[in-house]
Amino acid sequence: MGLFNKASTKQAKPATKPKANTMKPADLSETLFNMKFTAKQMGRLAKKAHSSMEAEKKKCKQAIEQSNVEGAKIHAENAVRNEKQEISYLRLQSRLDAVVSKLEAHTKMMTVTASMGDVSNKLDEALQTMDINKITAVMDTFEKQFENLDLNAQYMDGAIGESVASSVPQNEVNTLLQQVGEEHNLEVNEIIGGPKIPGTKTGQPSKETNPGEIDTLEEKLRNL
Question: What is d(CA 9, CA 132) in angstroms, rounded to the nearest whole number?
Protein backbone atom coordinates (compact mmCIF):
# COMPACT_ATOMS: atom_id res chain seq x y z
CA MET A 1 0.00 0.00 0.00
CA GLY A 2 2.92 2.25 0.77
CA LEU A 3 3.79 2.10 -2.89
CA PHE A 4 0.74 4.15 -3.76
CA ASN A 5 1.15 6.54 -0.82
CA LYS A 6 4.79 7.28 -1.53
CA ALA A 7 5.24 10.61 -3.13
CA SER A 8 6.90 10.54 -6.48
CA THR A 9 10.45 11.84 -6.44
CA LYS A 10 10.49 12.55 -10.18
CA GLN A 11 10.43 16.20 -11.06
CA ALA A 12 8.70 17.60 -14.08
CA LYS A 13 11.03 18.50 -16.94
CA PRO A 14 11.32 22.21 -17.50
CA ALA A 15 9.57 23.44 -20.62
CA THR A 16 11.95 23.75 -23.52
CA LYS A 17 12.25 27.17 -25.04
CA PRO A 18 11.17 27.34 -28.65
CA LYS A 19 14.05 27.75 -31.03
CA ALA A 20 14.40 31.14 -32.55
CA ASN A 21 13.31 31.28 -36.15
CA THR A 22 16.71 32.40 -37.34
CA MET A 23 19.70 30.84 -38.98
CA LYS A 24 23.22 31.13 -37.71
CA PRO A 25 25.66 32.84 -40.08
CA ALA A 26 27.72 29.65 -40.13
CA ASP A 27 24.75 27.73 -41.54
CA LEU A 28 25.02 29.65 -44.83
CA SER A 29 28.78 30.01 -45.05
CA GLU A 30 29.17 26.98 -47.31
CA THR A 31 26.28 28.09 -49.49
CA LEU A 32 27.78 31.55 -49.85
CA PHE A 33 31.12 30.03 -50.86
CA ASN A 34 29.44 27.81 -53.45
CA MET A 35 27.48 30.74 -54.84
CA LYS A 36 30.63 32.84 -55.21
CA PHE A 37 32.44 29.94 -56.86
CA THR A 38 29.55 29.34 -59.26
CA ALA A 39 29.40 33.04 -60.14
CA LYS A 40 33.06 32.90 -61.16
CA GLN A 41 32.35 29.76 -63.16
CA MET A 42 29.55 31.59 -65.00
CA GLY A 43 31.99 34.39 -65.81
CA ARG A 44 34.51 31.95 -67.28
CA LEU A 45 31.80 30.21 -69.30
CA ALA A 46 30.65 33.58 -70.63
CA LYS A 47 34.18 34.39 -71.84
CA LYS A 48 34.42 30.97 -73.47
CA ALA A 49 31.09 31.48 -75.24
CA HIS A 50 32.24 34.91 -76.45
CA SER A 51 35.45 33.43 -77.88
CA SER A 52 33.43 30.72 -79.62
CA MET A 53 31.13 33.37 -81.09
CA GLU A 54 34.06 35.32 -82.53
CA ALA A 55 35.54 32.12 -83.98
CA GLU A 56 32.23 31.24 -85.65
CA LYS A 57 31.98 34.75 -87.12
CA LYS A 58 35.42 34.33 -88.71
CA LYS A 59 34.37 30.97 -90.14
CA CYS A 60 31.20 32.60 -91.44
CA LYS A 61 33.30 35.24 -93.22
CA GLN A 62 35.46 32.57 -94.83
CA ALA A 63 32.39 30.65 -95.96
CA ILE A 64 30.93 33.79 -97.55
CA GLU A 65 34.20 34.44 -99.39
CA GLN A 66 34.10 30.87 -100.70
CA SER A 67 30.41 31.22 -101.71
CA ASN A 68 29.59 28.40 -99.30
CA VAL A 69 25.94 29.23 -98.63
CA GLU A 70 25.13 26.39 -96.23
CA GLY A 71 28.41 26.75 -94.37
CA ALA A 72 27.86 30.48 -93.88
CA LYS A 73 24.37 29.88 -92.47
CA ILE A 74 25.58 27.14 -90.11
CA HIS A 75 28.41 29.28 -88.72
CA ALA A 76 26.04 32.25 -88.38
CA GLU A 77 23.60 30.09 -86.37
CA ASN A 78 26.45 28.89 -84.15
CA ALA A 79 27.58 32.48 -83.58
CA VAL A 80 24.09 33.60 -82.56
CA ARG A 81 23.69 30.58 -80.26
CA ASN A 82 27.02 31.28 -78.53
CA GLU A 83 26.05 34.92 -78.10
CA LYS A 84 22.81 33.88 -76.37
CA GLN A 85 24.74 31.53 -74.09
CA GLU A 86 27.16 34.32 -73.19
CA ILE A 87 24.28 36.60 -72.20
CA SER A 88 22.64 33.83 -70.15
CA TYR A 89 25.85 33.13 -68.23
CA LEU A 90 26.43 36.83 -67.54
CA ARG A 91 22.86 37.29 -66.29
CA LEU A 92 23.12 34.34 -63.92
CA GLN A 93 26.50 35.58 -62.68
CA SER A 94 24.95 38.96 -61.92
CA ARG A 95 22.02 37.41 -60.05
CA LEU A 96 24.32 35.23 -57.97
CA ASP A 97 26.55 38.19 -57.07
CA ALA A 98 23.52 40.28 -56.07
CA VAL A 99 22.04 37.58 -53.83
CA VAL A 100 25.42 36.86 -52.21
CA SER A 101 25.83 40.53 -51.35
CA LYS A 102 22.37 40.83 -49.79
CA LEU A 103 22.63 37.49 -48.01
CA GLU A 104 25.96 38.41 -46.44
CA ALA A 105 24.59 41.73 -45.21
CA HIS A 106 21.50 40.21 -43.61
CA THR A 107 23.39 37.28 -42.14
CA LYS A 108 25.50 39.80 -40.23
CA MET A 109 22.31 41.45 -38.97
CA MET A 110 20.84 38.04 -38.00
CA THR A 111 17.69 38.68 -40.04
CA VAL A 112 17.86 35.56 -42.20
CA THR A 113 14.85 33.39 -41.44
CA ALA A 114 14.98 29.66 -40.84
CA SER A 115 12.84 29.09 -43.92
CA MET A 116 15.95 29.82 -45.95
CA GLY A 117 17.58 26.69 -44.56
CA ASP A 118 15.68 24.42 -46.91
CA VAL A 119 16.29 26.77 -49.81
CA SER A 120 19.98 26.84 -48.96
CA ASN A 121 20.20 23.04 -49.08
CA LYS A 122 18.41 22.94 -52.42
CA LEU A 123 20.73 25.59 -53.79
CA ASP A 124 23.78 23.59 -52.69
CA GLU A 125 22.46 20.60 -54.62
CA ALA A 126 21.74 22.72 -57.69
CA LEU A 127 25.17 24.36 -57.61
CA GLN A 128 26.82 20.94 -57.64
CA THR A 129 25.03 20.04 -60.89
CA MET A 130 25.98 23.33 -62.65
CA ASP A 131 22.55 23.09 -64.31
CA ILE A 132 21.46 26.61 -65.23
CA ASN A 133 17.75 25.77 -65.12
CA LYS A 134 17.96 24.18 -61.65
CA ILE A 135 20.09 27.01 -60.27
CA THR A 136 17.69 29.59 -61.69
CA ALA A 137 14.67 27.84 -60.15
CA VAL A 138 16.25 27.89 -56.68
CA MET A 139 17.41 31.47 -57.22
CA ASP A 140 13.79 32.43 -57.83
CA THR A 141 12.87 30.94 -54.45
CA PHE A 142 15.79 32.70 -52.77
CA GLU A 143 14.74 36.03 -54.19
CA LYS A 144 11.14 35.51 -53.09
CA GLN A 145 12.44 34.98 -49.56
CA PHE A 146 14.24 38.30 -49.82
CA GLU A 147 11.03 39.94 -50.95
CA ASN A 148 9.40 38.68 -47.75
CA LEU A 149 12.19 40.47 -45.90
CA ASP A 150 11.55 43.61 -47.96
CA LEU A 151 14.73 42.95 -49.92
CA ASN A 152 13.54 43.22 -53.48
CA ALA A 153 16.39 41.74 -55.47
CA GLN A 154 17.42 43.62 -58.58
CA TYR A 155 16.62 41.33 -61.49
CA MET A 156 18.40 41.55 -64.80
CA ASP A 157 15.98 42.07 -67.67
CA GLY A 158 14.10 38.86 -68.39
CA ALA A 159 14.43 35.46 -66.77
CA ILE A 160 17.35 33.27 -67.72
CA GLY A 161 15.54 30.08 -66.80
CA GLU A 162 14.75 29.51 -70.44
CA SER A 163 17.26 27.19 -72.01
CA VAL A 164 18.99 28.41 -75.14
CA ALA A 165 16.84 27.39 -78.07
CA SER A 166 18.33 24.76 -80.34
CA SER A 167 16.85 26.50 -83.38
CA VAL A 168 18.07 30.05 -83.86
CA PRO A 169 15.59 32.63 -85.28
CA GLN A 170 16.25 33.18 -88.97
CA ASN A 171 16.10 36.96 -88.70
CA GLU A 172 18.97 36.92 -86.19
CA VAL A 173 21.02 34.72 -88.50
CA ASN A 174 20.36 37.09 -91.41
CA THR A 175 21.32 40.07 -89.26
CA LEU A 176 24.65 38.49 -88.36
CA LEU A 177 25.30 37.56 -92.00
CA GLN A 178 24.67 41.17 -93.01
CA GLN A 179 26.96 42.39 -90.23
CA VAL A 180 29.81 40.14 -91.39
CA GLY A 181 29.22 41.16 -94.99
CA GLU A 182 29.30 44.88 -94.20
CA GLU A 183 32.43 44.57 -92.06
CA HIS A 184 34.37 42.83 -94.84
CA ASN A 185 32.67 44.27 -97.97
CA LEU A 186 31.20 40.92 -98.96
CA GLU A 187 28.03 40.16 -100.90
CA VAL A 188 25.59 38.25 -98.68
CA ASN A 189 22.18 38.97 -100.23
CA GLU A 190 22.29 35.74 -102.22
CA ILE A 191 23.04 33.76 -99.04
CA ILE A 192 20.26 35.47 -97.11
CA GLY A 193 17.86 34.75 -99.93
CA GLY A 194 16.77 38.31 -100.61
CA PRO A 195 17.00 40.24 -103.88
CA LYS A 196 20.51 41.05 -104.94
CA ILE A 197 21.25 44.73 -104.39
CA PRO A 198 23.56 46.21 -107.02
CA GLY A 199 26.61 48.04 -105.77
CA THR A 200 26.93 46.25 -102.41
CA LYS A 201 30.18 44.50 -103.28
CA THR A 202 33.41 46.41 -103.55
CA GLY A 203 34.45 47.09 -107.12
CA GLN A 204 30.99 46.35 -108.57
CA PRO A 205 29.33 49.29 -110.40
CA SER A 206 26.00 50.35 -108.99
CA LYS A 207 24.42 50.48 -112.46
CA GLU A 208 25.50 49.05 -115.79
CA THR A 209 25.52 51.59 -118.61
CA ASN A 210 24.13 50.57 -122.00
CA PRO A 211 26.50 51.55 -124.86
CA GLY A 212 23.46 52.53 -126.94
CA GLU A 213 22.41 55.01 -124.29
CA ILE A 214 25.88 56.61 -124.43
CA ASP A 215 25.67 57.05 -128.23
CA THR A 216 22.21 58.62 -127.94
CA LEU A 217 23.40 61.00 -125.25
CA GLU A 218 26.44 62.08 -127.30
CA GLU A 219 24.22 62.70 -130.33
CA LYS A 220 21.90 64.93 -128.28
CA LEU A 221 24.88 66.88 -126.98
CA ARG A 222 26.16 67.49 -130.53
CA ASN A 223 22.74 68.77 -131.60
CA LEU A 224 22.68 71.39 -128.82
Answer: 62
